[in-house]
Amino acid sequence: MNNFSELENACMEANAFMSENDFPKESAYTVALCLEEMGTNIIKYGYDDNEEHEIEVNLELNPELARLQLLDDGHEFNPLQAAPADVTSDISHRKIGGMGIHLTRSMASNISYHRLDDFNVLTIEVVPVSN
């Protein structure tokens, strides 16, 4: 995955995988939204060149947890260190950007980041809620 079309396909595949494994729909929506938002950030901001890059997406499910992991070779960026999004000002005065990270932070049960060699490794965990 390294463009928006492939990101859309990855989100559809993740949704299908979660549906096939009876993962609760509301929690599956959270996982897919986190994938879309963080994948978008990587594609839009991770690279300075027009070269093709691979973004690896892994999704593990069990009855207690969904674990989504994104690995990319983009610029080192820890979204946990990003400034909080402004959600209190009038929308016409807010700076554009940052809402994807804000949504992911607020919806995920746990988020971790580390750098492994030349790769960003972002892990997002979602504890399922019953539908």
Give a topology summary.
Blueprint: H1 4-20, H2 25-45, E1 55-62, E2 65-72, H3 99-107, E3 110-116, E4 119-126
Antiparallel strand pairs: 1-2, 2-4, 3-4
The number of helical elements comes to 3
Q: How many strands, what sense, and barrel or not for the largest sheet?
A: 4 strands, antiparallel
Principal-axes geometry comes out as globular
Helix-strand sequence: HHEEHEE
Per DSSP, what share of the residues sits in E-state strands of 2 or more residues?
15-25%
Q: Report the average pLDDT across residues.
A: 88
Query: Given the helix and strand composition, which structural class is it?
Result: alpha+beta
Gyration radius (Cα, Å) is 15 Å
Task: Explain this structure.
This protein has 131 residues and is an alpha+beta fold. It has a 4-stranded antiparallel β-sheet with strand order 1-2-4-3, covered by helices on one side. It has one domain: Histidine kinase-like ATPase, C-terminal domain (Heat Shock Protein 90). Helix 1 (4-20) packs antiparallel against helix 2 (25-45) and helix 2 (25-45) runs antiparallel to helix 3 (99-107). It is 36% helix and 24% strand. A hairpin with a 2-residue loop joins strand 3 (110-116) and strand 4. The chain is built from 3 helices and 4 strands.
Short summary:
By secondary structure, this protein is α+β, with helices and mostly antiparallel strands.
Considering the chains and any ligands shown, give keywords for the structure:
131 residues; alpha+beta; Heat Shock Protein 90; 4-stranded antiparallel sheet; 4 strands
